[in-house]
Specification:
The complex is a heterodimer of chains A (about 350) and B (about 500). With about 350 residues, chain A is of the alpha+beta class. Chain A has a domain of about 180 residues: Uridine Diphospho-n-acetylenolpyruvylglucosamine Reductase, domain 3, CATH 3.30.465.10. Helix content of chain A is about 30%, strand content about 25%. Chain A contains eleven helices and 16 strands. In chain A, a hairpin with a 4-residue loop joins strand 14 and strand 15. The mean pLDDT of chain A is about 95. Chain B is an alpha+beta fold and about 500 residues long. Chain B has four domains: about 110 residues, Uridine Diphospho-n-acetylenolpyruvylglucosamine Reductase, domain 2 (2-Layer Sandwich), CATH 3.30.43; about 120 residues, Uridine Diphospho-n-acetylenolpyruvylglucosamine Reductase, domain 3 (2-Layer Sandwich), CATH 3.30.465; about 110 residues, Alpha-Beta Plaits (2-Layer Sandwich); about 140 residues, Alpha-Beta Plaits (2-Layer Sandwich), CATH 3.30.70.2740. In chain B, helix 2 runs antiparallel to helix 4, helix 9 runs antiparallel to helix 14 and helix 14 runs antiparallel to helix 15. The chains are: A alpha+beta (about 350), B alpha+beta (about 500). At the A-B interface, strand 7, helix 6, helix 8 and helix 11 of A face helix 8, strand 11, helix 9, helix 11 and helix 16 of B. Bound molecules: flavin-adenine dinucleotide. The site of flavin-adenine dinucleotide has 39 residues of chain B, from strand 3, helix 6 and strand 10.
């Protein structure tokens, strides 16, 4: 089916749902339906809408249909010696680019190479009234109009059916290495302050007394950094596991998983949490109430986001003050006035 | 771009004065009493003599005298001013340093200017977390100066950085010479505190710039339409160990543009990658006395940075590419002083070009970098067709063009042709998959260009988003987003102007 036909079909489905006031559940590869609040509504499956729309390797930008599996995009750009600028978590080979945009998560490279939101240059979306709109574009700098493309990132599909995304790419580094060092959290932070910006880090995680460092860059630079860091050789799998939220090996069970987003130098508290992003992102599996987790994040100077777990009634984020919550609600209403798209997935309010 | 989009473009850029009521202020005395009470004793300007300095921003072709200028010193006073204006439905234009090049800070005659210039404290520098918490009136360069003691800097460096404010940078999503590698404002801001027009304070973003919906991204670059930003937390970066700058001379513009595309295609991410054409070099040479080798038709300026080793390797790689692409002379600089020498011509290029003709008009389109050769050739052809010289000096690495159209506004009909040529150049950018503004914003200047870039439905969505933040359209009313009606039937009053202010600032 051509893009125009597919867009027409999705627009028609959304329009019909809009008229009937019935919610739609947007499904990419379906591999991450366990994230967020309970899905609701008739399925709108994007997986068949896959493939590359435009890719000019010399430009370091790719435009793909939302149903394209992340691994397919990676393979396509790898053939030209390139990688996605943002490292994308996935639950399986079925996880799609559209799903990645909806969840808005970025892997361990985030402090060093930027977030997915940073790498999104443009989108095509179908709004909750069934209109096909285009925002942003395929160029690096663009200040015409509000930045609606980035607004889609992390919105859990509640602001639009993402049809197409343009993403920034980077050259694939020549060489990579992983080192593991035994130290306490304070020691880890001190080292990271010294090394970040000076050594070619692309990941820094800390769990159970071990600092895991991932390096990538020119072979000589990586070699020199490895010598300076010392420690022992580690496995790149540790970082793919952290990227994909498979944290059991680091002592975090797969149940009731939270992210705490905090100033990186904050204490490692609780000590059983895993620190990623050099400390700015902490993973914590806990049976504690949402209120207790939000309070803990606030004590550390940050905020918490619920990833997955058996209790699917709580909002993904803490409820902001009423006036700000109302502002979120009004923005939601602009793009999806009847709450058709992924109703209740991010917040019980919409 | 689709042909229907092209069809909606009529007659290039057309300037229109914003519709503004004139005549005596209809505002009740109670408004003025309450506004004065919200501000410190010296915080309200109403005398005509005091208002002159606020009549325009960096785009001086537009001027309007506001009813008053409010100068709060604190966040609470700022909120109180907005409260009062909201109650009396008085339009507000926020203002930082007034260096906007698109009329973003142009006042309204029926409203007040809210200057954030006195909220200029650096609240904290946190070297452990590499962040700085700032009031909006802090000047861009002051952040890097304060962070230098910790070996850190704030990456976005617009060439207006000695004057422009962080609040204005957030509003315009400002870039700089180093944004190819280090990103724009949106990539370097973690959170903001912002008043909506009803005087309610919101916190957006957080330690990792995330939140339930990314309203932070929506606000950055929103040109003061969505709220008044009163506190900004930015990410700081460690200063690179080593920096090398190269200036490569080419015998043709095509070769130079090809070299830029080749550098990008080779996977090098220089800290900066700039291009100047023959006219720009001539002007810069005459202005600074900088010497370019005879026969130079275009130069590429590139800078690489990083740790010593990476920098050395990137530099060698870069040099090899420039050689291969036909650079016939390459000059290099490592020390701060040598680098300043190499950059001198580039940094003075705008004022230098300003000497070639009585007036010039600066464009800001962005294109995919592979289209550089073609678009520059297209611009040259258009320049010939219109008989108006165009100098090119721009951020080649991110495809952000700044064609400078030289003209003489005193010649009858010339400005209209300049505007038409400008419109044709933007059309060319759009036709190659680009955008009408890379970093200067839409303001009042590119409203008609927006009609060519977006469909009516997209413009309606922008207006609805504006209304979600500011239902009575009190903040920067009439700017950045044209009404769909205007796109169908534009008003067409041409206004012309004189010289760019801030002549002492470096321009990129
Ligand atoms: C010589 C020169 C060189 C320049 N070079 C560059 C460059 O390299 N890169 C680049 O990107 N730009 C450049 N600019 C443009 C300009 O400097 C930037 O757009 C800058 O960000 C504007 O900051 P300002 O403080 O002067 O804002 P102003 O001009 O005062 O305001 C700009 C806009 O921001 C709004 N605003 C200001 N403060 C706030 C606030 N606190 N909250 C909400 N809205 C606010 C205003 O309403 C207005 O719409 C240049 C300008 C000049 C004159």
């Amino acid at each position: 089916m051509s893009d125009i036909e597919t867009a027409g079909r999705v627009c028609a489905m959304v329009q019909a749902a809009y008229e009937r006031h019935t919610p739609l559940e947007i499904i990419g590869g379906g591999s991450r339906r366990h994230f967020g609040r309970e899905p609701l509504g008739e399925p709108l499956v994007l997986a068949p809408h896959r493939g590359i729309v435009a890719y000019e390797p010399s430009e370091y930008v790719i435009t793909v249909r939302a149903g394209t599996p992340i691994v397919d995009v990676e393979a396509a750009v790898a053939a030209h010696g390139q990688v996605l600028a943002a490292e994308l978590p996935r639950a399986s080979g079925e996880s799609t680019i559209g799903g990645a945009v909806a969840l808005g998560l970025t892997g361990p490279s985030r402090p060093y190479a930027g977030s997915l939101r940073d790498a999104v240059l443009g989108v095509r979306i179908v709004t909750g009234t069934g209109q096909l709109l285009r925002f942003g574009g395929q160029v690096l700098k663009n200040v015409a109009g509000f930045d609606v493309s980035r607004l889609m990132v992390g919105a859990y599909g509640t602001l639009g059916v993402v049809m197409e995304v343009s993403l920034r790419l980077h050259p694939r580094p020549e060489e990579g290495a992983v080192r593991v060092l035994a130290c306490d959290w304070a020691g880890a932070r001190a080292r990271l302050l010294d090394w970040a910006g000076r050594l070619p880090l692309t990941g820094a995680c800390y769990a159970r007394g071990l600092l895991y460092l991932r390096l990538a860059g020119r072979a000589a630079t990586v070699g020199q950094a490895v010598r300076e860091i010392g420690g022992e050789a580690g496995s790149a799998d540790t970082f793919s596991a952290v990227r994909d939220l498979r944290l059991e090996a680091l002592g975090v069970p797969a149940t009731a998983l939270w992210r705490l987003l905090v100033p990186p130098a904050a204490p490692l508290d609780p000590p059983a949490s895993v620190a990623d992003w050099g400390g700015a992102q902490r993973f914590w599996a806990t049976e504690e109430s949402a209120g207790a987790v939000h309070a803990q994040a606030a004590r550390l100077g940050g905020q918490a986001m619920r990833l997955s777990g058996p209790d699917r009634h709580e909002d993904v984020w803490a409820t902001p003050v009423p006036a700000t919550m109302a502002l979120y609600g009004r923005v939601k209403a602009v793009l999806d006035p009847r709450g058709i798209l992924n109703r209740g997935r991010l917040s019980a309010m919409w | 771009m689709s042909s229907s989009n092209l069809a909606r473009w009529r007659n290039g850029v057309q300037y229109t004065r914003m519709e503004q009521p004139r005549g005596p202020s209809p505002l009740p005395a109670a408004f003025w009493r309450e506004l004065r009470a919200a501000l410190p004793a010296d915080g309200l300007l109403r005398k005509p003599g005091d208002l002159g300095a606020y009549e325009c921003d960096g785009l001086t072709v537009y001027k309007a005298r506001p009813l008053a200028v409010a100068l709060p010193r604190t966040r609470a006073q700022t909120g109180a001013v907005l409260h009062v204006c909201n109650r009396y439905a008085v339009p507000v234009v926020a203002r930082g340093a007034g260096t906007s090049l698109s009329g973003g800070a142009l006042p309204r005659t029926d409203g007040i200017v809210l200057s954030l210039a006195r909220l200029n404290r650096i609240l904290t520098i946190d070297p452990e977390n590499r962040t700085a918490r700032l009031e909006p009136g802090v000047r861009n360069i002051a952040v890097s100066e304060a962070a230098a003691a910790h070996g850190l800097f704030y990456a976005p460096d617009p060439s207006s950085q000695i004057a422009c404010t962080i609040g204005g940078n957030v509003a315009e999503n400002a870039g700089g010479v180093h944004c190819l590698k280090y990103g724009l404002t949106v990539h370097n801001v973690l959170s903001v505190r912002m008043f909506t027009s009803d005087g309610v304070l919101h916190e957006l973003g957080g330690p990792t710039a995330e939140g339930p919906l990314d309203l932070l991204a929506l606000v950055i670059g929103s040109e003061g339409l969505l709220g008044v930003v009163v506190e900004i937390t930015v990410q700081l970066k460690p200063r690179p160990q080593a920096v090398v700058a190269l200036l490569a001379a080419f015998r043709s513009l095509e070769q130079a543009a090809g070299a830029v595309s080749a550098v990008i295609a080779a996977g090098i991410v220089p800290a900066g990658l700039e291009l100047m054409d023959h006219l720009a070099i001539q002007a810069a040479g005459a202005y600074t006395g900088q010497h370019y080798p005879p026969g130079t038709e275009a130069v590429v300026l590139a800078e690489v940075d990083g740790d010593d080793q990476t920098c050395a390797m990137e530099h060698a790689h870069l040099r090899a590419i420039l050689d291969r692409q036909g650079a016939f002379a390459i000059d290099e600089a490592r020390s701060e002083e040598e680098r300043r020498r190499l950059w001198a011509g580039r940094k003075s290029a705008f004022p230098a070009v300003g000497r070639l003709a009585p007036d010039y008009y600066c464009m800001d389109g962005t294109i995919p970098r592979r289209a550089l050769v073609e678009v520059l050739a297209g611009i040259a052809a258009l320049s010939g067709q219109y008989g108006l010289p165009v100098a090119n000096v721009f951020h080649a690495g991110d495809g952000n063009l700044h064609p400078l159209i030289l003209y003489d506004a005193r010649r009858p009909g010339e400005l209209a042709r300049v505007e038409q040529l400008g419109g044709d150049i933007l059309k060319l950018c759009l036709a190659h998959g680009g955008t009408i503004s890379g970093e200067h914003g839409v303001g009042v200047e590119k409203l008609d260009g927006m009609c060519a870039q977006f469909t009516p439905a997209e413009l309606v969505a922008f207006h609805a988003l504006k209304a979600a933040f500011d239902p009575y359209e009190l903040l920067n009313r009439g700017k950045a987003i044209p009404t769909p009606a205007r796109c169908v039937e534009p008003g067409g009053m041409h206004v012309h102007g004189g010289h760019m202010p801030f002549g002492h600032l470096e321009r990129y």
